[in-house]
Amino acid sequence: MKEGLIAFLGAMFIKALHVTVRKRHVNPEHILDTKQYILAFWHMHIISAFFSYWRNPMTVLLSRSKDGELIARCVRWFGATSVRGSSTRGGSSAIRAVIREASRGTNFTFTPDGPKGPPLIAKDGVIYAAKMTGLPIVPMALDGKRKKRLRSWDGTLIPLPFSKLTYVYGAPITVPRDGDVEEWRKRLEDALNTLVDEAEKMVNE
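RE: above sequence
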């Protein structure tokens, strides 16, 4: 009951906040023109990522931690479902669930540096998911003109009311079935960090 109430209040706060925020989407065709995909962004962007260009059906990969449970309940208010698992707990079962849901036409969201970091360093779970499903990874980053950063391990970004957010989408990354996991993990990591830099420059223009 308590977790459900907190998740509801959190979702309503996020929705109310973003009613006031102006949004700019750069290179949105990378996601809008991709039929089925894995959307990847750093954990620090998780709050504002709800208002990126994603579409249902959407499944979010989350950890089996208490925080993961709260987020799982929260994403339901946005019409998304969740799969529970991480690089340390339930990872293999989560990948199997991703493969199963992919066959049903579901899109996915991964935070490659979650659930506990280190920040801005990609883990390889999303690469395995891309290899096994054949879905392209669409990297995305964002930044805000006026924002607050929490004192959390990831420095979660929260836009201030009536601020401006810029979302930047990278070209889809298709991982070959026989692709080297470390090579493609690094490619994704570099792509995401490049987008972070681009978003920061654009909001300060």
